[in-house]
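Lecture notes, continued. The same structure-token format from the folding unit now serves as the input rather than the output. Read the line below as a description of shape only.
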């Protein structure tokens, strides 16, 4: 049987939070439905953060309430603190993600907490989510490097992963937030994570800042990772982490995995329709590294 790769589409959250243009709730829904038609099932849909900090996602509650209440989809909402958790739950969230950066400075810039406070708050939110019966994911952001503090000590990353695991996190998203990792570091960190926490809990989250994201994905895959985050058209980046460019593109990852013989459940023509839609809404200049090649293939097929 073909082995399956699980993709969590983060474009609506990680992608849109960093766009200068605010996308309407209606257009977010259109993007969601285009991605669902392409076969994606797991989405990070929004953040319940301060609307002053991230105005692009100020419609979090309206968006969540408008999305299909259908168990075939997992719709995760990022929450930075207990207030965000309560807002998410009252809007109907069944899956949440906490975001814990591995350095003091990035926690301070991102959620205005020290590392100690952020880890305590994230632990509390994960525990609460689990006791309320929700799915809980914990991000460890800047797991390889921090824009303010340089290389991240691996020991801290694993201490935080242990803490989130003990709190009950269902998923651990190890994030190269600024796209600074190299494939060897990725291989080492993910092999150790899989050995400690298992392949069903470990998720790789890459950004394509230096054009290495597919190489990082390959290194993670080769270490046993089967769960990846990606963003349609490579949208993304953290407004509070300077230098973070777009996430690895959903189309690049899916092509890579399909070529390697994995089952992705994706209809590629529909996925590329979704990219056309994103470009219509946000303007040209988006898209993964595979996009120019794919468009040429499509044109040639029509011309034949
Ligand atoms: N949702 C909405 N509003 C929130 C909130 C939440 N989760 N948490 C706090 N607030 C509001 C407070 O009610 C208060 O509102 P007021 O000014 O109208 O009284 C204001 O924000 C300040 O509250 P405070 O607890 O002092 O928060 P803060 O200023 O320390 O900011 C965060 C903390 C987490 C809310 C803010 O840093 C944030 O939203 N960051 C965004 C992080 C993010 O999205 N990063 C990218 C993804 S990793
Ligand atoms: Zn990210």
């Amino acid at each position: 049987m073909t082995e399956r790769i699980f993709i969590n589409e983060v474009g609506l959250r990680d992608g849109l939070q960093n766009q200068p243009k605010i996308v309407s709730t209606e257009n977010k829904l259109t993007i969601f439905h285009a991605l669902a038609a392409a076969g994606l099932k797991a989405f990070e849909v929004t953040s319940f953060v301060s609307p002053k900090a991230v105005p692009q996602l100020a419609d979090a509650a309206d968006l969540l309430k408008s999305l299909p209440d259908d168990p075939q989809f997992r719709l995760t909402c990022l929450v930075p603190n207990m207030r965000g958790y309560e807002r998410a739950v009252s809007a109907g969230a069944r899956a949440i993600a906490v975001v814990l950066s591995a350095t003091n400075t990035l926690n301070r810039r991102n959620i205005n907490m020290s590392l100690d406070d952020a880890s305590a708050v994230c632990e509390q939110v994960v525990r609460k989510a689990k006791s309320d019966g929700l799915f809980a994911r914990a991000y460890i952001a800047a797991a390889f490097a921090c824009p303010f503090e340089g290389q991240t000590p691996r020991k801290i990353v694993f201490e935080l992963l242990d803490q989130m695991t003990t709190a009950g996190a269902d998923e651990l998203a190890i994030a190269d937030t600024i796209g600074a990792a190299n494939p060897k570091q990725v291989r080492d960190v993910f092999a150790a994570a899989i050995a400690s926490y298992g392949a069903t809990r470990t998720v790789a989250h890459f950004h394509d800042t230096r054009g290495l994201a597919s190489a990082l994905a390959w290194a993670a895959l080769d270490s046993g990772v089967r769960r990846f985050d990606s963003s349609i058209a490579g949208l993304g980046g953290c407004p509070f982490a300077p230098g973070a460019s777009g996430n690895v593109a959903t189309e690049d990852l899916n092509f890579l995995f399909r070529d390697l013989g994995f089952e992705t459940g994706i209809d590629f023509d529909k996925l590329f329709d979704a990219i056309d839609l994103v470009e219509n809404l946000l303007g040209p200049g988006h898209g993964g590294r595979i996009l120019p090649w794919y468009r040429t293939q499509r044109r040639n097929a029509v011309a034949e």
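Point for the exam: Residues 14, 175, 177, 205, 207, 236, 247 surround zinc ion (ligand 2) (CB under 6 Å).
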